[in-house]
Amino acid sequence: KERVFSGVQPTGNLHLGNYLGAIVKFVELQKTHDCIYCVVDLHAITVPQKPEELKSSIREVTAAFIASGVDPKQHIVFNQSQVCEHAELAWIFNCVARIGWLNRMTQFKEKAGKDRENASVGLYAYPCLMAADILVYRATHVPVGEDQKQHLELARDIAQKFNLDFGERIAALGHGDAFFPLPEPLIQGPAARVMSLRDGAKKMSKSDPSDYSRINLADDADIIAQKVRKAKTDPEPLPSEVEGLAKRPEAENLVGIFSALNGQTKLDVLRQFGGGNFSAFKSALVDLAVAKLGPIGAEMKRLKDDTDYIDKVLLDGASRAKVIARENLAAVKDILGFVR
Ligand code: TYM
């Protein structure tokens, strides 16, 4: 049976990239799949976090899911550290994955920077925990932005190696020829990689020091308008064909954002705005972004302060997630030969 899993880090500044690259898809997939959406606090502490800010970010991401249309009753919304099976399976995967595999992870290299000796071991082992998140539910589909592609490939490699290494036990215990499915990344559409508003060569990110580089889900209409107006562009008018966006990363990014927000193709957008200058297009983009994001931001702020409700959602989600995770982890322990 098909099952969707995805996660978002509670590290502040949820932005348009997180929304269009991931959360919008979470909402769509609810129509066709059983979905599990996780606030990944164990991932967040791979770099230093202030405890009070972490707590508030966990609630904020939960509020963002719900405000965007994720349904915590029909599906499962929870916080990673409340289901200890994630960390347990991650340890087992630390022993399945190879150092050489992790050495190739580009995100570790970027995040660790020059002072790699001083990065946490958790930051290095991060992809094994991510594989555990997905596979502890034996999830088959994972909606993410383009930047998570390499981590998803690693999760598939881990699943495959586990299935091969323990193939005989897996078959003998009645699980057929594979215990873990190879999870499929769902990375699609014009917003799989939303770029910074200040630099079309950098992705929009929570950690960019300039707040003008991103539109946050919590931004109000005035701030959204300012940020879009200040967004970097080039002096040419917009093209009428998608090919005309090549080598114009800022134009391509804004057109991509417009099309994703409006559920149109880039060509549809260019049919309307091609040949015109950026100022008319930007005004339309402000109106569209405010119309789509304004209500979500407002609902998010309201929900976030209702900590009783949010914490109840997370507790209920964790207890339902745990039922699935516990059963799968027990099977893994039997496969490995642990005594239970
Ligand atoms: P995180 O918290 O950095 O981002 C959450 C989701 O947002 C997507 N995203 C983007 N999409 C398009 N354009 C952008 N500029 C952009 N920036 C972020 C991310 O791809 C992601 O889908 N490692 C993950 C969290 C994680 C996870 C998992 C995801 C932990 N375990 C298991 C899936 C399955 C992360 O750091 O995402």
Automatic annotation (TrEMBL):
One of its GO terms (cellular component) is cytosol. InterPro entries: aa-tRNA-synth_I_CS, aa-tRNA-synth_Ic, Rossmann-like_a/b/a_fold, Trp-tRNA-ligase, Trp-tRNA-ligase_bac-type, Trp-tRNA_synthetase. GO terms for biological process: tryptophanyl-tRNA aminoacylation. L-tryptophan binds at residue 133. A motif ('KMSKS' region) lies at residues 203-207. The keyword Cytoplasm applies. Its EC number is 6.1.1.2. ATP binds at residues 9-11, 17-18, 145-147, 194, 203-207. It is found in: Cytoplasm. It holds the Pfam family tRNA-synt_1b. It catalyses: tRNA(Trp) + L-tryptophan + ATP = L-tryptophyl-tRNA(Trp) + AMP + diphosphate + H(+). Keywords: Aminoacyl-tRNA synthetase, ATP-binding, Cytoplasm, Ligase, Nucleotide-binding, Protein biosynthesis. GO terms for molecular function: ATP binding; tryptophan-tRNA ligase activity. A motif ('HIGH' region) lies at residues 10-18. It is an enzyme of class 6 (ligase). PROSITE patterns: AA_TRNA_LIGASE_I. Belongs to the class-I aminoacyl-tRNA synthetase family. HAMAP family: Trp_tRNA_synth_B. Homodimer. Catalyzes the attachment of tryptophan to tRNA(Trp). This is Tryptophan--tRNA ligase.
